[in-house]
């Protein structure tokens, strides 16, 4: 019975892992959020970000709120401004890889694989 508990616990942990990854990818599925995350390798405020993405200040603020609530960005107060930054280097790498893949598709660059 104990071995069965270990297997079922391992399967549950694996299911939780895939569910968490799916939630992150769902949040990345929005082009504005993806662009914001690509810019947040350094701390920036809403005004700066609004000038760099094709979205209104209000929209940028709402997207940042969703990303913050999900734990994908961190925010800190600096006087009257709130500065945002991506929460994890893993997330930055995921965004960069997604954009690299998009470059291959949109620019017609042949895909490469490690096993070739």
From TrEMBL:
InterPro entries: ArsR-like_HTH, HTH_ArsR_DNA-bd_dom, HTH_MetalResp_TranReg, WH-like_DNA-bd_sf, WH_DNA-bd_sf
Entry-linked SMART domains: HTH_ARSR (SM00418)
GO molecular function: DNA binding; DNA-binding transcription factor activity
Keyword annotations: DNA-binding, Transcription, Transcription regulation
Ranges for domain HTH arsR-type: 13-106
A Pfam family reported for this protein in Swiss-Prot or TrEMBL: HTH_5
Matches recorded under NCBIfam families: HTH_metalloreg
PANTHER family assigned: ARSENICAL RESISTANCE OPERON REPRESSOR, TRANSCRIPTIONAL REGULATOR, ARSR FAMILY
Protein name: Putative transcriptional regulator
């Amino acid at each position: 019975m104990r071995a069965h508990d270990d297997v079922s616990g391992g399967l549950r942990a694996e299911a939780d892992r895939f569910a968490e990854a799916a939630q992150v990818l769902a949040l990345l599925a929005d082009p504005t959020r993806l662009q914001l995350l690509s810019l947040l390798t350094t701390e920036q405020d809403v005004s700066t970000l609004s000038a760099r993405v094709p979205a209104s200040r209000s929209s940028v603020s709402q997207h940042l709120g969703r990303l913050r609530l999900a734990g994908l960005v961190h925010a800190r107060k600096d006087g009257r401004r709130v500065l945002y930054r991506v929460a994890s280097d893993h997330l930055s790498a995921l965004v960069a890889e997604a954009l690299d893949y998009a470059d291959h598709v949109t620019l017609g660059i042949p895909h490469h694989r490690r096993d070739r």
